[in-house]
Amino acid sequence: MRNIYAEYELQRQQNKALDFADLLLSAYELLRDHRDIRQHYQSRFQQILVDEFQDTNTMQYMFTDVIYQQ
């Protein structure tokens, strides 16, 4: 199984492709590192509903949490 994942990662990087985890990390870093962008989205949403919150992983939690930072 490790070989399959290693090959997947190699192919993904060589093709400069992004998977869901990459997209989530990039969105999180954008909000975390750019206050103006974060404030824009904070002002757009008063509430956020996270369906199936019990299944949220750490990165998904961090993404939603960064929106609430002041």
Key structural traits:
single chain; 70 residues; 0% strand; mainly alpha
The whole-number mean of residue pLDDT values reads 93
Specify the overall morphology.
elongated
SSE sequence, one letter per element? HHHH
Roughly what percent helix? 55-70%
Tally of separate helices: 4
Walkthrough of the structure:
The structure is a single chain. The mean pLDDT is 93. This protein is mainly α and 70 residues long. The protein is 69% helix and 0% strand. The relative contact order is 0.12. The longest helix is centred in the middle third of the chain and has 14 residues, at 20-33. The protein is elongated. The protein has one domain. Helix 2 (20-33) packs parallel to helix 4 (58-68). The chain is built from four helices and no strands. One of its GO terms (biological process) is recombinational repair. Pfam families: UvrD-helicase. It comes from Chromatium okenii. This is DNA 3'-5' helicase II. Residues 2-69 form the UvrD-like helicase ATP-binding domain.
Give a brief rundown of this model.
By secondary structure, the protein is mainly alpha-helical. It is built from 4 helices and no strands.
Layout: helices, strands, pairs:
Blueprint: H1 2-14, H2 20-33, H3 35-44, H4 58-68
